[in-house]
Amino acid sequence: MKKAWCSITVFMLLIRAVSGQQVSNQRYEVVSGTGEAEASADRGELDALAREMESRFSVYTQLFRFDPARLDAPLKVRIIKDTEAYNSYISFRIGGTRPGAVYIHYQDAGRRELVINRGGAEESRALPYQAFVQYLRAFVPSPPSWLREGFAIYFTTLVYSPAEDLKYSENLSWLEAAKNAGNSLPPLESILLADQGGEPENFRALSWALVSFFLNSGNENYFRSLIESFMLLSPAADAAQNSRIVRDHLGRWGDLARMRTDFLSYLDSRKTFLEFMTDGEAAYAAKDAFTAEYSFMSAMNQKPEHYAPYYYLGLLAYENGSHDQAEQYYRQSIENGADRALVLYALGINAIAAGKNGEALTFLRQAAELSPERYRAKADDLIKKLGG
């Protein structure tokens, strides 16, 4: 009895530590978890988060068409800035930690909440994923796993900023894994009925790919069948039952074996970062600037943190006479981890072509210092020609 009382006491102290000011809007209740002393200072932050969550809700509803009147209670969001306090709170609730953010689901709608480690290292990745899970499970507590995972990953790249509201770029970080999994793709039923028969290998990648296929294949029947299946999901059914409901509805629109073939064709038609880079390098070598630029831009959009597309786009801009643009691309490639000596030498050549001899001397000297075995002789020759 004493042990149980201690646990209750710890829980009450924890609740007190994270309780604070709250704001509410049409759908959400946002609570500060930084403590009473800081609650007033966080008012603007709570308001901003409430607006962000409302915007996300609107985007989800445009696709899923769930009736907001069905909500049993406002959707609660809790901010905890201190990472240690966040981990303690989450550990007490679910017996483990989740970096960045986690949605905690209960049968009682009033106890459900999305908990965010505000400012934590993983918040920007975890928040969009968990925000969608909160939305979906508010209307369908036990959705099919593939649908929950697939759309949560799909919306991970729905990014919010106060100035621009929400911006979406397609999340293609899972494409390579999905294409690799497609080489040994199981029957679609094993994905659609994962709640009944267990998750197949590479389940998350295939779930995302299946969502992308239904939304972007261009086949109106596939898109319509998915949208209609949302309306058939039952709040009272378990995940296995809802999985069968969706599987049966999709099957009425077409043979699942044919759908599997179309799905594989769709995956094959989508190019990965590596494929775009390979195409771009081949086009660059063949002096096909248009195809090269398209390929490198596509690669950059898939992996904006990678250095290679920026370097090649810099080469293309230089050859096109767009020297300021080339410099921007080169500098970004360095920021993203490119071979510094290589890019500094390219910046020197670009600066010479732009008539910026002073900058060229600086770049060339830096390249020679960083990698004398590769650039000392070439840089010294150019420096002499520039009178340096």
Shape descriptor reads globular
Tell me the fraction of residues in β-strands, as a range.
5-15%
From the N-terminal CA to the C-terminal CA, the straight-line distance is 84 Å
Averaged pLDDT:
90
SSE topology:
Elements: H1 2-18, E1 22-24, E2 28-32, H2 43-64, E3 75-80, H3 83-94, E4 101-104, E5 113-117, H4 123-139, H5 145-154, E6 158-161, E7 165-168, H6 175-182, H7 188-192, H8 194-197, H9 203-216, H10 220-232, H11 239-253, H12 256-269, H13 273-285, H14 289-302, H15 308-319, H16 323-335, H17 340-353, H18 357-370, H19 372-385
Parallel strand pairs: 2-3, 3-5
Antiparallel strand pairs: 1-2, 4-5, 6-7
Helix pairs in contact: 1-3, 4-5, 5-9, 6-9, 10-11, 13-14, 14-15, 15-16, 16-17, 17-18, 18-19
Describe the structure.
The protein has 388 residues and is of the alpha/beta class. The chain folds into three domains: 14-139, no CATH class; 175-269, no CATH class; 273-385, Tetratricopeptide repeat domain (Serine Threonine Protein Phosphatase 5, Tetratricopeptide repeat), CATH 1.25.40.10. Helices cover 63% and strands 8% of the residues. It has helices at residues 2-18, 43-64, 83-94, 123-139, 145-154, 175-182, 188-192, 194-197, 203-216, 220-232, 239-253, 256-269, 273-285, 289-302, 308-319, 323-335, 340-353, 357-370, 372-385, and strands spanning 22-24, 28-32, 75-80, 101-104, 113-117, 158-161, 165-168. A five-stranded mixed beta sheet has the order 1-2-3-5-4, with helices on both faces. Strands 6-7 form a two-stranded antiparallel sheet. A hairpin with an 8-residue loop joins strand 4 and strand 5. Helix 5 (145-154) crosses helix 9 and helix 17 runs antiparallel to helix 18. The radius of gyration is 26 Å and the shape is globular. The N and C termini lie far apart (84 Å).
